[in-house]
Design goal:
The chain is built from 15 helices and 20 strands. It has 493 residues and is an alpha+beta fold.
Length: 493
């Protein structure tokens, strides 16, 4: 029998002993006053004399983190995940039920304690335990206290152990929650309406991505998990909701990396009578607002480097960025064949579509993207890779589109939205041709969306922001799995 098996057997024996003694090891309720963090927040500044003069009696629950015996006195630390509270127990003064609980107590158990607050001679706020109640008997030991949970794979698969053992992981998800609250407050205060659009769609649209498929039995209908909410949100703009946003999940049947998870969270918004320049200003304001409220300053710490968020941020065209970081003559970047030669020379992956837009994007990602650490807007994307964006006046090969890069990652994507139904229909037909040539990420033809546009959509700017990557930046985490509570993993045998 392994050491772990012996520990589990020992704990099961204690569980049986509690039940035989009539103690319920998994009660349905524990009426309590405060958890440990709340005790410290409310009474942490009390002196020993004040607690003697005005006694405070509390019922406090928590997970047992430490047990220290000193003769007839036992010290137990209980925690709520964010703070611990010391409990002093004089075993010889306990009632019989509480004595049985103490005798069968293990690290990791949930314990309810009733008693009076005091301050020890060392100055530590302590609950003098007079009554103990087992709230949940843990049958498996927790990771070793002083080393925490170091195995990254286990941290992702058993996130509950990670949260118990590593306080910094809890802080990551508290920052993520603060980001979401802050975003909602930011857009609500500017008159945007939060909405929800379908997760299951008859036609996957709004982004160049391979979708997940599912089937509705009652309707006998094949459906797709959405790759983006874009086309439904723009239908709402047609309907007169001129400032809308959604924070929700997207699903893309693509590879997994430190920056990609097939299920991810996006902010997407649409703003009537605005264009992509207005959206750039809005994004700068949002980042500064969130950083100041969460981090205390308009700056980020990323992989040992300070990233200043003060506006305005640099704006480079995709051609300019590729020429600058690839040390390439800009004149060569106007020719598809020259770009293809440059990709081959560098041993870079060649895109399926060999048109100018896809080739330029591939070269940009190869030579420029890794260098975009400070916040930078990459503007004026080719029309071939931007089927939903309005063309740039004076240059029909380009669109009014930007992507925001921070920390070498694409963080946001925005357009001046294409609202001409005839041009949009032709773009969809071009995408269909690309699908027929093997591009399974090309956009499908959405006739219902064209129908909506034919009723008239005002000029608008649209924006999508990757929440998971924002959380990576704000918590200085190198992997997207560190900021998703339950990332997708290959099942264990």
């Amino acid at each position: 029998m392994s050491e772990l098996d012996e520990q589990i057997a020992h704990r099961k024996a204690k569980l049986a002993a509690l039940r035989e003694a009539g103690v319920d090891p998994y009660p349905r309720l524990f009426e309590h006053d405060l958890e440990p963090a709340g005790v410290h927040q409310r009474y942490g500044d009390k002196t020993a004399e004040e607690l003697v003069a005005e006694p405070v009696r509390l019922r406090v629950p928590g997970r047992v983190q430490a047990i220290r015996e000193h003769g007839k006195t036992v010290f137990v630390d209980i925690s709520d995940g964010s703070a611990k509270l010391q409990v002093l127990i004089r075993a010889h003064k306990l009632a019989e039920d509480s004595t049985r609980v103490l005798a069968n107590l293990d690290l990791g158990d949930y314990l309810g304690v009733s008693g009076a607050l005091m301050v020890t001679r060392t100055g530590e706020l302590t609950l003098a335990g007079e009554q103990l109640q087992m709230l949940a008997k843990a049958l498996r030991p927790l990771p070793e206290k002083y080393h925490g949970l170091a195995d990254v794979e286990v941290r992702y698969r058993q996130r509950y152990l990670d949260l118990i053992s590593n306080p910094e992981s809890r802080q990551v998800f508290e920052v993520r929650a603060a980001l979401l609250r802050g975003m909602r407050a930011f857009f609500d205060s500017r008159g945007f309406l939060e909405v929800e659009t379908p997760m299951m769609q008859a036609l996957a649209g709004g982004a160049a991505a391979r979708p997940f498929t599912t089937h509705h039995n009652a309707l006998d209908l094949d459906l797709y998990l959405r790759v983006a909410p874009e086309l439904f949100l723009k239908r709402l703009v047609v309907g007169g909701l001129h400032k809308v946003y959604e924070i929700n999940r997207n699903f893309r049947n693509e590879g997994i990396s430190t920056q990609h998870n097939p299920e991810f969270t996006m902010l997407e918004l649409y703003w009537a009578y605005a264009d992509y320049r207005d959206i750039m200003t809005l994004v700068e304001e949002m980042f500064v607002s969130l950083a100041e409220s969460i981090l205390g300053e308009a700056a980020l710490s990323w992989k040992g480097e300070r990233l200043d968020l003060a506006a305005p941020w640099p704006r480079l065209t995709m051609v300019e960025a590729t020429a600058k970081y690839g040390e390439i003559d800009p004149a060569k970047l106007g020719d598809a064949a020259a770009i293809a030669e440059e990709l081959e020379r560098r041993g870079a992956e060649m895109p399926r579509a060999r048109d100018w837009g896809h080739l330029l994007l591939a070269l940009f990602e190869e030579v420029a993207e890794p260098h975009l650490n400070a916040p930078t807007f990459i503007i004026d994307h080719p029309v071939e890779i931007s089927p939903l964006a309005k063309q740039k006046p004076g240059d029909p090969r380009l669109t009014e589109r930007f992507e925001l890069y921070v920390g070498g990652m694409e963080l946001a994507n925005a357009f001046s939205e294409l609202n001409d139904p005839q041009v949009q229909a032709e773009r969809f037909r071009q995408q269909l041709a690309a699908r027929e040539q093997g591009d399974d990420e090309a956009h499908r033809f959405d006739a219902d969306y064209i129908l909506a546009l034919e009723h008239g959509m005002p000029p608008a700017g649209g924006l999508g922001v990757g929440i998971d990557r924002m959380a990576m930046l704000f918590t200085d985490r190198a992997s997207i799995r560190d900021v998703i509570l339950f990332p997708l993993l290959r099942p264990q045998a």
